[in-house]
Description:
The protein is built from 24 helices and 9 strands. By secondary structure, it is an alpha/beta fold.
Amino acid sequence: MAKQATLKKYFLKPSRFNNNNDDESEIQSEVTETADAVAPAEKKQKCRAFRPEWKSKFPWLRCDIIDGEEKMFCSHCEKSGRKNGFTRGATNMRISALTEHSQCSDHVSAGNLTQQQTAMKGHCEKANETSDKKLCSQLQVVFHMAKNDIACHQYVGLTDLLRAVKAPDFVSCEGIYRHSDSVDMEKALEDVVVKQLDDKLKGSDFIGLIIDETVNITVDKKLIIYVKLEIKGRVETCFLGNYDVHSGTARCIFDKVVEVLRERNVELSHVIGLGSDGASVMMGKRAGVGALLKKESAFSIQVHCGAHRAALAALDAAKAVDQVGAYKRTIASVYSFYKHSASRTNHLHQLTAALSNEDMTSLKQPCAVRWLSLHRAVEGIKRNWPALVIELNKEAVGGNAQAQGILGQIQLYCFIALTHALADVLPVMTKLNLVFQKDDVNLATIRPMVHASVTALTQLRDAPGPEEERFQADCQEGMYKDVKVTHAGDRSVQAFKNARARYIQHLIDALHDRFPEDSLDLLNCFDVLLNPSRYPQTQGGKTDKQRDIEMLLYGEDELKEDQGADSKDEMNDYLQDRIQDR
């Protein structure tokens, strides 16, 4: 049994125990045991972490992990530029630290500033929205002025009118542009339109050009250019510009087209079509604009405007018959006689109203550059003829030599008879012309319309139309509507009939020349191939093989009509091979 150590031994010097090592070891062991028993147990440090639910109580709180350590930040203090522990990154993950920060002066002042900034932002956005709405309304006014060719200095007057009628965006003068010139806004609109057009040009793989020569009011030669674009399978026609050209030669026009396209970053190889009025400078086979373009773009084709073709057919027929040419000159003289005198025009109005219950149809000038002008001019002469004769006779009696000359022309039987004959013929050409002036011309309607026009003209050539029959029934014994008709004898009647027949025949021939049958057949082929509405409709009960064969046979009869015997045999062999493969 180990010897029990006394309390006194704890206070002895170590040297006292050198001779007794065993006792020393026992004493040291007892000391260690006693120290362990006396020393209190150490507390382990508790690790705290960020809790996501704190964000719901403190919306400004944000926690980021920086160098592997979580740090808390205050968005309000950061935004307002404060400098405190929550802008540098707080590591004390206690809710008490968050509560303390939320009550400090830095955070309170930063929160008030954030609220003021939010309120100010809302007011600014509301003011900007109102200002933008007013600006859009003003731009719409300028856009309307540009489209309707209204002078820029009229802008202030239009805005005053809108304010007078209490238009919502013009009630207050605040935010309304009051300068007398609206050029700045027009320039802004132009920039937007040009950018949109550039984007469309960039997005179109193929481009068609429509060009024509024109002049401005100072007779400066201009070149107007339209482009036809393909955008996501849809064709769109856009105005490109009206440009100055120093001459009307093919080389000058072509160089201007190249210059304009290069400014828009358009490659000439993308131009696959050129539409024009058919003039030799445009469609010349060797040196025309189309020929020059084909050297740069091998796949480009030239298209002669259909409306121009119809107008030129009528012009060719009028040139071929002297009586029709003289008739056009006479009605141009009538228009000029009344155009320059308001009193004459007023007397004619009054007399027309007294002679008939119909309102007066204003006189029109036949113009070569307006396709429908001759038809309207003929209608004006037909409706006002009795009043014209009476008024011109009154002027002639007064000694007016010009009135005497015009009266002698319009009283002739041939003149008034030709007026009614043209009233039957020209509507046929007008209807055909209007078909070609549509924005989207249906290929399927072109050949039937041309054939229908030729058929109608043939009937008018062989027999009088309704207007001419009405005239012949009312013209008896040299009087028409109680007004004397001169030179109404048989020779004049026969001369008129011969002139009418020749004019209509020339018109039929001109239509055949301007619209060749092979071209019409080609248009019909395009309609067969490209018109989805003509494709065979899918019906129930058919197998896939039957539907495929039906599509293979679709259009065979229509396309064969425009091919020779050899081509028909080749197509039959091809179709039979395809069907057998199926």
